[in-house]
């Protein structure tokens, strides 16, 4: 078996490489990156693999038996990009594709879901054995806001009482390594999420506890939250997208209690308290 991992040098791709090395050090790993030099520190073979340049794709998959297909980050471009990757995998004779999709992609109200649904459909029609990892939200999506929350004395959002079953990025990477290294996962779709869901008010309460001072959660209307993000320096389209994700979370789009993630990795998912502790300034 030879496993190739796309999405390098991104955070999830790096963590998958590390998890796979730990779980199956005997399996050869090939990195796939738009700019291979940026992944040189991983000390594996890294081939050029640009979702926007089809000519780079099939040649880079030569000799690959299993492809870890980390979804692209260019929202609005991913259907085309992902079609390029699936077509190249077919041409190269890849035997198994493991794809990172979105939690409950088939029913999700998140604006991100459409491109994932289309990619899942491509894989179903491709004739290539595949496994779908429908990843929930990363806890880091929220803990990256710890420093500004501390600086301003409050945490803001627009998720209301929505329960968010997030998990650490490393938890999802470990699950990917399990599926890549072990047999028997082809044809499966996994809804992956954290064991214990939290609201943004819960997150603020835990941050307050660890910081030793009150950091309240302030729930804003979606438009006001987007405006606040623009005021903090985010581009307007990105701010609007983030606010819309919170609105979807308020309706339950980021909740799941199936515990498939902890079942795959054989341990509880990383608790919110640990993720917040890791994000606090030294």
Automatic annotation (TrEMBL):
InterPro entries the UniProt entry points to: NAD(P)-bd_dom, NAD(P)-bd_dom_sf, NmrA-type_oxidoreductase
Residue ranges of every copy of the NAD(P)-binding domain listed in the record: 10-180
Source domain of life: Bacteria
Species annotation: Sphingomonas liriopis
A Pfam short name: NAD_binding_10
Name of this protein: SDR family oxidoreductase
């Amino acid at each position: 078996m030879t496993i190739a991992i796309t999405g390098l040098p991104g955070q999830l791709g790096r963590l998958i490489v590390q998890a796979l090395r730990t779980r199956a050090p005997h399996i050869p790993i090939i990195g796939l990156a738009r700019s291979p030099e940026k992944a040189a520190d991983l000390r594996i073979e890294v081939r050029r693999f640009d979702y926007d340049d089809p000519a780079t794709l099939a040649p880079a998959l030569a000799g690959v038996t299993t492809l870890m297909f980390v979804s692209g980050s260019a929202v609005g471009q991913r259907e085309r990009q992902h079609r390029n990757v699936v077509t190249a995998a077919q041409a190269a004779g890849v035997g198994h594709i493991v794809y990172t999709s979105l939690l409950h992609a088939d029913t999700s109200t998140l604006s991100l879901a459409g491109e994932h649904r289309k990619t899942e459909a491509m894989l179903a029609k491709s004739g290539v054995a595949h496994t779908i990892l429908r990843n929930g939200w990363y806890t880091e999506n929220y803990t990256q806001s710890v420093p500004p929350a501390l600086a301003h004395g409050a945490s803001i959002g627009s998720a209301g009482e929505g329960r968010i079953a997030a998990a650490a990025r490393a938890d999802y990477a470990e699950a990917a390594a399990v599926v890549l290294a072990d047999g028997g996962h082809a044809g499966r779709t996994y809804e992956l999420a954290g064991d214990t869901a939290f609201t943004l008010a819960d997150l603020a309460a835990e941050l307050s506890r660890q910081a030793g001072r009150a950091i309240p959660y302030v729930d804003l209307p979606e438009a006001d939250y987007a405006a606040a993000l623009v005021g903090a320096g985010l581009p307007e389209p990105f701010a609007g997208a983030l606010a819309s994700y919170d609105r979807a979370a308020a309706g339950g789009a980021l909740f799941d209690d199936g515990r498939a993630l902890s079942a795959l990795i054989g341990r509880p998912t990383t608790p919110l308290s640990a993720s917040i502790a890791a994000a606090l300034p030294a």
